[in-house]
Amino acid sequence: MIRVPILTAPTASGKSALAVRAALAAPVPVEIIAVDAFTVYRGLDIGTATPTVAERHGVPHHLLDIVDVTENYDVARFVADAEAAVQAIVDKGAVPLLVGGTGFYLRALQRGLPTTPPSDPEMRRAVEAELIARGLEALLAEIRAADPAEEARMQRNPRRVVRAVELLRRTGRVPGDYPLRPPAFACEVIAYGRAADETTHRIAERTLGMLRAGWPQEAAWLAAHVDPDTEPQPTVWQALGYRDALAVQRGHLSVGAAATRIDLATRQYVKRQATFIRTQLGATPLTEAEAARLLAARLAGGAGEV
């Protein structure tokens, strides 16, 4: 089985830049596969901090800008795309490097996908209508009554909650009850973090830069293609900060007020990511320098086998 390194860190840690530096310094050709639930969407480059062509420095990147914002893109589709990309990279003699911070995508690559049955469209629509009528908390309570651990795994994601309730009512089992399909390759997770004060500074600097670079206009473009008020919340509108950026464009928030709100939400998200990396991925965060050295060693070894 192929062993593939994963570089992960909470948002605003600079993992994309670190991955490119490591790829350029490696003695073998390296290609990067993005592990991000939102950089897959075309047109969301500013708000998702998608690496620009210049920032990629000629290193091939995969799974960026591959679907329209009107499409649904889920973890099962991502895993299929990522596995195909890994195999294609290895087949041409290069080394794949997975880079990103979307926890449930990373966990699915590491452990495999649940063998849950296909969705029932009619029941799914019924649960979606219930979400609108009764609210997220009522559906979460139903999941919690069946399995408190499953409620925690939902991370308050409406689409995941709807799917779990649909499955629970149809089969009496939550998604976590289903066995996992074995992963197609072995993953070695290399994780790092930054000090809290440095993270706070980086988040503030990045947020303000993104708002000044056209994020509000990008959010308005998204709203023209996908109604942000649709229930359940469209996947693309779950991306951090887009609603606040849209409020700036519509004159409901100042840039400063939006930045304050986005900064707070991002810091909270960073804490959740750090916890997920430790508890769900089983990785001990290193310093950036330690992660860079370990990544360099792994890339120098090529696409190894386990």
TrEMBL record:
EC number of this enzyme: 2.5.1.75
Keywords: ATP-binding, Magnesium, Nucleotide-binding, Transferase, tRNA processing
Binding annotation for ATP: 9-16
Enzyme class name: transferase
Catalytic reaction(s) noted: adenosine(37) in tRNA + dimethylallyl diphosphate = N(6)-dimethylallyladenosine(37) in tRNA + diphosphate
Binding site for substrate: 11-16
CC cofactor: Mg(2+)
GO molecular function, one term: tRNA dimethylallyltransferase activity
Site location (Interaction with substrate tRNA): 102, 124
SUPFAM superfamilies noted in UniProt: P-loop containing nucleoside triphosphate hydrolases
Family: Belongs to the IPP transferase family.
Function: Catalyzes the transfer of a dimethylallyl group onto the adenine at position 37 in tRNAs that read codons beginning with uridine, leading to the formation of N6-(dimethylallyl)adenosine (i(6)A).
Subunit-level organization: Monomer.
Descriptive protein name: tRNA dimethylallyltransferase
Source organism of the structure: Deinococcus rufus
